[in-house]
Amino acid sequence: MAKFRDIVGYFRPYRTTAIGSITAASIFEIVDLVVPYAIGQILNVLSGQPVDAGIQSAIARVAALIGIPVNQYLSLAVLMGLIFVVTVVRAPLQVWLAWWFHWEIALRSRRDQSEVAVKKILTLPLEFYDEHNPGRIAGRIARGLENHTWSYPEIAGQLIPKLCRILGIFAVIWLIEWRIAVLFLISFVFILAFSLRGLKRLIDRERVLDRYSESTDSRTSEIITNIKTVKAFATEAAELARQRRRLDRHSKIVLHRIHRGYIDLGTWQKTVVQMCVFFILGLTLAATVGGSISLGHFVTTLTVSSMAYAEVEPICIIAETFARRYASMLRYHEFMQQKAGLDAASLDNASAERVSPYHFTGKVEFSQVSFAYDKENLVLEDINLPIEPYQTVALVGRSGSGKSTLVKLLFRYFEPNQGRILIDGEDIRTLDVTSYRQRLAIVHQEVDIFNGTLLDNLTYGNPKVPFEQVQEACRIAKVDEVIRQLPQGYYTVVGERGVRLSGGQKQRLGIARALLVDPDVLIFDEATSSLDYESERSIQLAMKDILGTRTTIIIAHRLSTVREADKIVVLDSGRIVEVGSHNELLHREGIYRRLHSLQETGELI
């Protein structure tokens, strides 16, 4: 559960600079009080009233230094010199000592935390992405980083220094008339306490609203992602109506529950502040008439107290803005507190290079492997499957029989509840996960394509591969004929998610990309299940050229893809029920023969 200290910890790497810049900004705010104090002393000089002892001593020292007697003009010159120092001389220093560092810290922290967020994205377990929408994740990170960036200069550069100024004002009034200072402090504490209490209630409402906004943004992201489906089913009006209802509900919450709360709080603040200013005016005037304080002190007290009460509104605006951002910042830290998955690879290139690269013969063995996602309902049960080097093994079975889960375990996305998976006799859990996965490759049913050139996508797993090998892999995968048809060949930009490529072209690109990492074990996961006959035939021809060159595992829904496999493993309800070649299994009265018959007759499985 994220807390306020997590927000503060966001800027921890820059705490030394932060302390220095906040201290400098606070000092500059307090130094500002010299101006109304000096003006009050000028009024005393002009009206013939005595100045304070400290000012009188300073004037006397200046007079002795330059060798002239103390007079009205010298007193005014000293006070004007004091004002000059704290205004004109201070101005350029404040820009660099305070404002520069506030934004430097905010912007550097954003850069650092953006990198940390990317690391978190890369190390979270796969099941997290199964349960959370990508748009929602990206939105949470973006809002969290943005709100941290904007909040720091406001809190460190304005809120804290303004509070220090108020304490300085209290000290000035205390030196003039302590009874007025006590009443001033009590009123100010009351206003701030009541305001913060109101803001706390509004923060709770903002937190609920932030979750709701996240859901709305997530749906918008889904509409963009699935826009072809939306248009195909002509559901544009329905989607608009659904989002309109969400936005209307969002607007009502903002206007009638949250914004109305801020307006009510602001109304109370302004009324009470003006009452306090008037009250201080009355007390100060009475003290002046009674002779307790001079005319200069009257002006100084009234001026600095008005300055203090004038800070209530900006302080509350900053607090209000922070309250609006607080929920999204907490949700960002809740995301950052997610535990890394057991399948997380090392993100340190230096440490990865220190690990000796693996090279396997491709001998894989599943030994008494059982697995359940929820630790109750077994997806795989007591799997014993040896795979010899360079052997082609096909996994077939009904949907949900555990075929893809077996491959996920091989890639160490999950760990078995019991049993072991061995490669060349070594338990894969004892191997460095990054170096281990670099010796595997997979072609998914839906090949992921990045927005970039075709060459960038082909060399994604091995950027240093020579161009000649790229061409050879493309020839084997039958993607070279596709490249010849593209306007810029290998340098054609394929668009986000490869929108400019067909399903078959993506699959062939995926095969070439897998070949370019020269894996010891190559997996085809339903590589042809969603393709037309012509595309499927092209993929099968490409696969035929690969079989026997390395250990190959084929997960197939269409049995025509696995005829050439050395061994076909039939799974049912998470258990191996049949093992054999295509011809051997057809001669048995088993599940494989039944599946084959259904597909031959064109019936659905």
Unreliable stretches (pLDDT < 50, length at least 5) are none
Sheet bearing the most strands, described?
Answer: 6 strands, mixed
In helices, the fraction of residues equals 55-70%
Cα Rg: 37 Å
Classify the beta-strand content into a percent band: 5-15%
Give the overall silhouette: elongated
Mean pLDDT: 84
Report how far apart the termini are: 46 Å
Structural overview:
The protein is an alpha/beta fold. Helix content is 63%, strand content 9%. It has 22 helices and ten strands. The protein has helices spanning 4-9, 15-31, 34-47, 53-66, 72-123, 126-131, 134-176, 178-225, 227-232, 236-289, 295-310, 312-336, 349-354, 403-410, 433-437, 454-458, 467-476, 480-485, 503-515, 533-546, 582-586, 591-600, and strands at residues 364-371, 380-387, 392-397, 418-423, 426-427, 440-443, 521-525, 551-555, 567-572, 575-580. Strands 6-7-8-3-9-10 form a six-stranded mixed sheet, sandwiched between helices. Helix 20 (533-546) links the parallel strand 7 (521-525) and strand 8 (551-555). Helix 7 (134-176) packs antiparallel against helix 12. The protein is elongated, with a radius of gyration of 37 Å. The protein starts with a helix and ends in a 5-residue tail after the last helix.
Report a brief summary of the structure.
The chain has 605 residues and is of the alpha/beta class.
